[in-house]
Amino acid sequence: MTDLAVEPTDSPAPEVLTPGVLPEALLHRFHGRAAEYDRDNRFFAEDLDELREIGYLRAAIPVSHGGLGWTLTDFNRAQRALAYWAPATALGVNMHLYWTGPLADRIAAGDTTLEWLAREVSAGKVIAAGHGERGNDLAIDDSTTSAVPVDGGYLVNGHKIFTSLSPAWAWLGIHARDDSDPEHPRIIHAFVPRDSAGVRTVETWDTLGVRATASHDTVLTDVFVAQEHVAEVHERGAEPGPFISSILPWAIPALVNVYLGIARRAVDVALESARTRNVLSLGNRPVAGKPFVQYHAAEAELALEAATAHLDHITEVLARGDDLGDRLLLALFAVKENGTRTARTVVDIALEIGGGGSIHRRNELERLYRDVRAGSIHPPSSDSVREYIGNFLLGE
């Protein structure tokens, strides 16, 4: 077992949140801690405590089950604002929140199978994602983690990477492979309680950016997973059930909002610098008067407007429940790639506007530049997106 756990509190929310809106004072406090978390490679424990206290961790859970009943649109709006002020906090908490949306969807559909997990979330418990595995480029379609059927459940062995929220999670959502029938291997999707024997955190997270997510490795050694904690089971290569299928429509738009939030913040910081940084060539007036600075500012805004409009459109389509048929995954992958690629481009432009001072460690732009780079690596990666879309369009 690990000694990194952060104990949840059951403090009631001190105020009723406006759907989709986080308190301004809270966001400013988070911003004040972001640089310190990054510098010290420290988990955003204080931010998480405050988010729990105001009810944000249960925002998507229906009111009937102890949540706030926020919609997909509300959730995405809040994530963009959170990322603007505290990128790593927004990215980390997203790994919990994207489980809560599918929970809400299943409850709305009358499925009571996972009501127990909704109650755990409403009690302040954190869910993390245990999907990353070295060498597994098929995501949840396959797994290097084994699940052996035993009496009452499964015995699980595997090594998960990129387990964001490592110090804080109470439940780890995993997928693993059951080869008990070699001709028909199955993928199980289940939740592992943190206090299970055989669960161990290995502190590996020391990265370029989004350092405060504490996305350490998690080793599972002969971990028993009870049948009641199994969410879905399907044959390898088959479509997962409705709960697992709901993950990407909740996870991807929010993920893109994180990176576009970073980009918007970078532009705002750069423009403020341009308004206050004087240069001799303009008679000791602000560099904002230079045509090339104005050109860069316009380029950044044009790119952000397009990517944001694309993301907001897809979010609204999903929130309305429109049936995209077999183009759903294409739409999600496209908005992820366009959004994260635009975010990187825009932050690059912001550094051009900000000038040489932008690369100093003390400059917020330097941290934002590092944080935004994770967008192309975060699944689905840029190469996976192109491979899938190309195959889809060409019928391969």
Automatic annotation (TrEMBL):
<keyword id="KW-0285">Flavoprotein</keyword>
<dbReference type="InterPro" id="IPR036250">
    <property type="entry name" value="AcylCo_DH-like_C"/>
</dbReference>
<dbReference type="Pfam" id="PF02771">
    <property type="entry name" value="Acyl-CoA_dh_N"/>
</dbReference>
<feature type="domain" description="Acyl-CoA dehydrogenase C-terminal">
    <location>
        <begin position="257"/>
        <end position="378"/>
    </location>
</feature>
<dbReference type="GO" id="GO:0050660">
    <property type="term" value="F:flavin adenine dinucleotide binding"/>
</dbReference>
<feature type="domain" description="Acyl-CoA oxidase/dehydrogenase middle">
    <location>
        <begin position="135"/>
        <end position="223"/>
    </location>
</feature>
<dbReference type="Pfam" id="PF08028">
    <property type="entry name" value="Acyl-CoA_dh_2"/>
</dbReference>
<protein>
    <submittedName>
        <fullName>Acyl-CoA dehydrogenase</fullName>
    </submittedName>
</protein>
<dbReference type="InterPro" id="IPR006091">
    <property type="entry name" value="Acyl-CoA_Oxase/DH_mid-dom"/>
</dbReference>
<dbReference type="InterPro" id="IPR013786">
    <property type="entry name" value="AcylCoA_DH/ox_N"/>
</dbReference>
<dbReference type="InterPro" id="IPR046373">
    <property type="entry name" value="Acyl-CoA_Oxase/DH_mid-dom_sf"/>
</dbReference>
<keyword id="KW-0560">Oxidoreductase</keyword>
<dbReference type="GO" id="GO:0003995">
    <property type="term" value="F:acyl-CoA dehydrogenase activity"/>
</dbReference>
<feature type="domain" description="Acyl-CoA dehydrogenase/oxidase N-terminal">
    <location>
        <begin position="33"/>
        <end position="97"/>
    </location>
</feature>
<dbReference type="Pfam" id="PF02770">
    <property type="entry name" value="Acyl-CoA_dh_M"/>
</dbReference>
<dbReference type="InterPro" id="IPR009100">
    <property type="entry name" value="AcylCoA_DH/oxidase_NM_dom_sf"/>
</dbReference>
<dbReference type="InterPro" id="IPR013107">
    <property type="entry name" value="Acyl-CoA_DH_C"/>
</dbReference>
<dbReference type="InterPro" id="IPR037069">
    <property type="entry name" value="AcylCoA_DH/ox_N_sf"/>
</dbReference>
